[in-house]
Amino acid sequence: MPDAPGLELIRGEIEQDHPGAVLDTGFEHGCASLAIDPAHVLGVLGWLRDAPGQGYRFLSSLHAADYLPAEPRFAVHYELLNRDRVERIRVKALLADPGEDSLPEIDSCVELFPTAEFQEREAYDFFGIVFNGHPDLTRILLPEDYVGWPQRRDFPVGGEPVTFTYNERNYG
Amino acid sequence: MRSRQLRARDMLRGDLEGEELERYVEERVVMTNFDKMLGWARSNSIFPLTFGLACCAIEGIPMAAVTARYDIARFGAEAGRASPRQADLIILSGRVSIKMAPIIRRLYDQMLEPKWAISMGACSSSGGMFSNYAVVQGAEKFMPIDVHVPGCPPRPEAVLYGFTKLQRKIQGNPDQGWRARYGAHGTEEWARGGPRGEPSAEAAKAYLAARELIVSA
């Protein structure tokens, strides 16, 4: 686990290769995280994987989040693991909401971490985040003809009201 | 017992005659019609589909069906069939997701007539606590259900009670008299349609007609 000063060192080294890539750093609950510009996601992940002394070669999880009403609204989280030192680092790529008719886009990291293939499909399935360069970006869990991105915060919960006598009397 | 055996021996030897023979026949022969006999045979030899959906399949079916403590074999339905083409009862045990619904419908369509369905637990009857984008709000939206067993999960006794209800239904004698037994007329839940807290005019009329039928029976 890089500690807070170690995280700042990592940030400085990334800044040398990819200026403007790291937007912010955070250190919560004993876990270091880098907030990055989505345009540099492959550069940062590749650097963390390949740079000497880093070696975060294992992508233990990739998931999306919707931070509505925060701006930028979406984030894709990459949980990286160095299996020699058992150190973890979290990379958050912050994605702005492009509006009603288009979907947020980010580069796919399947080339770097093949395990990301299914997890990127899941993020696409539930949040509608498009991963450019993904070999087969289709829905993975929901039915193929499903309409909408149900894990977004502005997606209606669904279900239907139950017509108990109590509900009828008080809310009918 | 011994005297009955002796009489049966006498009958087979041809020693029984007259009034004794008539009494023997009266004791041993049941008159019925074919439909009743068929219903009786069907209801006591149900082959449930080996099929589980969610947690009710873990809690309920092994408890109610397989274990010796509750033992659905008492009602002649212990032989689970792994193919819908050999089964005549499907127990929907758990929540039905929108992706699973077409598959369940297909299984149900593959079962041979006559066939029955039990919706076990709150989830498959109404969606239960899963009032969300992924779960069908009641399996009755896409297939006919004969018996709903409430509970989360239902007690094994409740599953067996629902099963015996289904047997009554198969025999052409559905037991609808529980409201009379419990003095529970007037506690019906009504769907939307009428004024606040009251049934719609059609529902009230249908209810009165049904009640007359049940109470007079």
What does it look like?
The complex is a heterodimer of chains A (172) and B (217). Chain A is an alpha/beta fold and 172 residues long. Chain A has helices spanning 4-17, 41-50, 116-127, 165-171; strands at 22-28, 31-36, 58-66, 74-82, 87-95, 105-107, 130-132. Chain A has one domain: Beta Polymerase, domain 2. Chain A contains four helices and seven strands. In chain B, helix 3 (34-43) packs antiparallel against helix 7 (156-170). Chain B folds into three domains: 2-31, no CATH class; 42-170, 3-Layer(aba) Sandwich (Rossmann fold); 178-216. Chain B is built from nine helices and three strands. With 217 residues, chain B is mainly α. The mean pLDDT of chain B is 82. Chain A binds chain B through residues 141-143, 146, 148, 150, 155-160, 162-165, 168-169, 172, and chain B through 98-99, 126-127, 130-135, 137, 189-192, 196-197.
Provide a concise account of the structure shown:
With 172 residues, chain A is an alpha/beta fold.
| Major sheet description of chain B | 3 strands, parallel
Distance between the termini of chain B: 39 Å
Any low-confidence stretches of chain A, pLDDT <50, length ≥5?
Answer: none
Classification by helices and strands of chain A: alpha/beta
The CATH class of the largest domain in chain B: Alpha Beta
Indicate the percent of residues in helices of chain B: 40-55%
Outline the secondary-structure elements:
The complex is a heterodimer of chains A (172) and B (217).
Chain A: H1 4-17, E1 22-28, E2 31-36, H2 41-50, E3 58-66, E4 74-82, E5 87-95, E6 105-107, H3 116-127, E7 130-132, H4 165-171
Parallel strand pairs in A: 2-5, 6-7
Antiparallel strand pairs in A: 1-2, 3-4, 4-5
Chain B: H1 2-13, H2 18-28, H3 34-43, H4 55-66, E1 89-93, H5 101-110, E2 116-120, H6 121-126, E3 147-149, H7 156-170, H8 178-181, H9 201-216
Parallel strand pairs in B: 1-2, 2-3
